[in-house]
Design brief:
Length: 296
C-alpha cells in the first residue's frame, strides 16, 4: 500500500520529466548562454575572453542605429498585432455565420498562416516589384495605370509593405482563435437577448466580446511574442536595408552577430528584447486578469 501511495505521488512527475528535460536543454540552457554572452567579451572568432560587465549594453545603447531599430520594432509589433487582431475578429464574426461555402471560405483563410513565412514574404516581394511585379502587370492589363509604379520609393514604404505582409499572415491565426471562442458561446444567450429587445451591437459588446475575451487574450499574448521575434518577413524583403531603416531587433542582432562579428553586443540586444517582451506580456496579462477579477 505504501509503495502504491508513493508511486501515485511520484507518477505525475515521472511523466513530466521528459518534457522538463527537453525544456531545460532547448530553452533554459540557451537563455543562460545568451545572458552569459551578453556580459562577456566575445572575440570575432567566437572565443569568450571573460567577464565584461555592462560594456556590451553600453555600446549597444550608444549606437545611433539602436534607437531607430527599437522604434521600428515597436511600430512593427503594434501595427501587426493591433490590425491583425481587429481584422481577425471581424473575419471570425463573418465566418461564424451560416452561409453557403463556409467550409471552403475557412479553408482559404487558413492558407496564409499554413504557408511558410519565407515563401509568403518572397511572393509579396515579387508582387510589389517595380519592373516585373504582378501588381503592376495586373493594374496595367486592367487599364488602371499606363506605366509601372514604384510601390517602394522610400524605406518607409518598404517597411509599410512588410507590416502589411505581417498582418496578412497573422490574421488567420487570430481568426481561428476567436472563432473557437465564438463557437463555444451558447446560442440561448443570444435568443434571450433578442427576446429582451437587444440589437446587434448590444449583443456584440455585452455577450460576444466578454465571452470571447479569454481566447482573445491568449491569442494577443502569443501574437506579441511571435511578431516581436519575427525574422523571415523583414529579412526576406529588405534584410533591414538601407542603413538599418527597416531593421527590427531580431534582424539587427543577426547582423551584429553574423555580419559584424559582434556576438557580445548581439547577445546584449537579445537580452534587451527579452526583457522588453517579458515586461509587455506580463503587463498585458496582469491588466486583463485584473479586469476579469473585477467582472467576477
Amino acid at each position: 500500500m505504501k509503495k502504491k501511495k508513493v508511486w501515485r505521488t511520484v507518477q505525475p512527475y515521472v511523466w513530466l520529466l521528459p518534457s522538463i528535460l527537453l525544456m531545460a536543454v532547448f530553452i533554459l540552457l540557451p537563455i543562460m548562454e545568451v545572458f552569459r554572452s551578453a556580459f562577456s567579451e566575445i572575440s570575432k572568432a567566437g572565443i569568450n575572453k571573460g567577464f565584461a560587465g555592462f560594456d556590451n549594453f553600453r555600446k549597444v545603447l550608444k549606437s545611433s542605429a539602436f534607437s531607430l531599430v527599437l522604434k521600428n520594432t515597436v511600430v512593427w509589433t503594434v501595427a501587426v498585432v493591433g490590425l491583425s487582431t481587429l481584422f481577425g475578429f471581424i473575419l471570425a464574426l463573418v465566418l461564424n455565420n451560416e452561409f453557403r461555402g463556409r467550409k471552403v471560405a475557412r479553408a482559404i483563410v487558413v492558407f496564409p498562416w499554413a504557408t511558410s513565412l519565407i515563401i509568403q514574404a518572397g511572393v509579396w516581394k515579387f508582387i510589389i516589384d517595380t519592373d516585373y511585379g504582378a501588381l503592376n502587370t495586373l493594374l496595367q492589363k486592367l487599364g488602371l495605370i499606363t506605366k509601372a509604379v514604384n510601390w517602394t520609393p522610400t524605406p518607409g514604404a518598404y517597411f509599410a509593405w512588410e507590416c502589411w505582409v505581417g498582418i496578412f499572415v497573422t490574421v488567420p491565426f487570430v481568426t481561428f482563435c476567436v472563432l473557437s471562442g465564438l463557437q463555444s458561446i451558447d446560442a440561448a444567450l443570444y435568443e434571450s437577448a433578442t427576446v429582451d429587445g437587444a440589437g446587434y451591437w448590444q449583443k456584440l459588446f455585452n455577450i460576444t466580446v466578454p465571452l470571447v475575451k479569454p481566447s482573445l487574450t491568449v491569442c494577443t499574448v502569443l501574437n506579441i511574442i511571435y511578431v516581436f521575434n519575427s525574422f523571415p518577413i523583414v529579412w526576406t524583403i529588405t534584410k533591414g536595408d538601407p542603413a538599418n531603416r527597416t531593421d527590427t531587433l531580431v534582424t539587427y542582432l543577426y547582423k551584429l552577430a553574423f555580419y559584424n562579428g559582434k556576438s557580445g553586443q548581439a547577445a546584449a540586444v537579445s537580452v534587451i528584447g527579452f526583457l522588453i517582451l517579458l515586461f509587455c506580456a506580463s503587463l498585458y496579462m496582469i491588466s486583463v486578469l485584473r479586469k476579469e477579477g473585477k467582472d467576477e
